[in-house]
Amino acid sequence: MKNIVLTLPLLLVASGLIAAPGRTHDGHGASELGVTVEELANSSRQWNGAILPKYPRGQPEVKVLRITIPAGVTLPWHYHPVINAAVILQGNLELQLKDGRKKIYQEGDALIEVVNTIHSGKALGSKDVNVVVVYAGEKGVPTTVLTKP
Predict the structure, then answer these.
(1) What is the pLDDT of residues 86-98, one digit of tens each?
(2) Minimum mean pLDDT among 17-31, 59-73, 108-122: which range?
């Protein structure tokens, strides 16, 4: 017997709760239950435009963190040796690469983080930044590594 892996949207389609994209649903589905699915990010590229690296061949490990960065705080230079994505729940986050390139993410934005690229972040404005980050890595590999300035 084969194992079937379903993402939440595919699970909802398979269970008949929502219609597959481009199809209508007859019967009692997600719309009748109030369930909605909104894709926040879908990319094979990092926020700096580089293509994501291949996944490692070791034991996969997924970690989900809620991170709060106080208003005005600048994070130290660091890099992530694993693929990760984030959703900004509150505040404005400025990400900066060593070469000076910057990008600002606001409340509700999703991003595919840079991998093995030194960068920093700063909580802009008067609100703390509250972000949920999902790391898709390999068992025993750290999610974040601090570097020297």
Answers:
(1) 999 999 999 999 9
(2) 17-31
Distance CA 142, CA 137 (A): 8
Strand ranges (E), 1-149: 60-69, 78-79, 83-90, 92-97, 102-105, 110-112, 119-124, 129-138, 145-146
Q: Are 120 and 95 in contact (CB under 8 A)?
A: yes
Give residue 93's domain range: 60-146
21 and 81 housed in the same domain: no
User: d(Cα 48, Cα 78) in Å, to the nearest integer?
Assistant: 15
pLDDT band for position 61 (cuts 50, 70, 90): very high
